[in-house]
Design goal:
Elements lengths: L1 H30 L14 E7 L4 H6 L7 E7 L4 H14 L4 E7 L9 H14 L3 E6 L3 H5 L15 H9 L16 H8 L1 E2 L4 E2 H14 L12 E2 L1 H10 L10 H4 L2
Parallel strand pairs: 1-2, 1-3, 3-4
Antiparallel strand pairs: 4-7, 5-6
Helix pairs in contact: 3-4, 8-9
């Protein structure tokens, strides 16, 4: 009788032990994260198309901007004026872009009586499509020259650009093949982004202020008559600001005072 009581007692202990183990497993399951919970979704990066007239100069320049927060696509295929705007529209029909810039030159052609009309209409059409425009009159190289020269606007034939640019950058160890591949090399780009020794300021900031001074005093009613000028500085300022928190960005007005 005593043996039976002892066996019954042991069985009861084992039963309670198993019940405690089962309860412990259930509690642990409650603490485990659910695999069915919604995971945090990644916010897609902003994508900007920079449709360029030139196949080499502009794309080789803009590709060297190291922007971490935004994907920029500088693409050039040799289109100009209205055809460039139409080409950008075609690109946008195959891929969604958050912002579109068209970058092209006035490229005056005295033997073409329609060049002024084509240049103006390209700007107006792009603006009507809510594209942003980085134009240069006469050409993109004028923007590069402003990094080294305090030009005040007015006539500067594009045939002078190559000699001017190399006159500034050759002594600093860089070259620009304006009659060859027309690419902005890394050495050239580094000079554009570097410090101007006499002022201690970045050359790109000096260039933006020079371009803005010229741009602000023009009426922008007939772009074809606004030589020499460029609005590329607006695109460059945007690219430089992209990785900077909005509250810490310095407006051009303040930078140029």
């Amino acid at each position: 009788m005593k043996m039976k009581d002892k066996n019954a007692e042991q069985r009861e202990k084992r039963k309670k032990h198993l019940e405690r183990l089962q309860a412990s497993k259930q509690n642990n399951r409650r603490k485990e994260p659910s695999l069915n919970r919604k995971r945090a979704t990644l916010i897609p990066r902003k994508v900007i198309l920079i449709a360029c007239e030139g196949k080499n100069t502009e794309p080789s320049y803009f590709r060297q901007f190291k922007v971490k927060s935004v994907d920029i696509e500088p693409i050039g295929d040799g289109y100009s004026h209205l055809s460039l705007v139409d080409w950008a529209t075609k690109k946008a029909s195959h891929k969604k872009y958050d912002e579109i810039w068209v970058v092209f030159d006035a490229d005056p052609k005295p033997d073409n009586t329609y060049w002024k009309q084509n240049f103006n209409q390209a700007i107006w059409k792009a603006q009507g499509l809510n594209y942003k425009v980085g134009y240069s009159h006469q050409a993109f190289e004028y923007w590069l020259i402003l990094h080294f020269e305090a030009h005040q606007g007015g006539s500067m034939p594009r045939t002078d650009y190559d000699e001017k640019i190399n006159g500034y950058i050759n002594p600093l160890g860089a070259t620009y093949d304006g009659k060859g591949d027309k690419k902005v090399t890394k050495d050239f780009f580094d000079l554009l982004m570097g410090i101007e020794p006499d002022t201690g300021k970045r050359r790109v900031e000096i260039a933006m202020c020079r371009a803005k001074t010229i741009f602000d005093r023009l009426p922008h009613t007939n772009f074809a008559d606004e030589e020499s000028s460029t609005s590329v500085f607006l695109l460059v300022k945007e690219l430089l600001d992209m990785d900077i928190p909005k509250k810490k960005r310095i407006p051009l007005e303040e930078m140029c005072n």
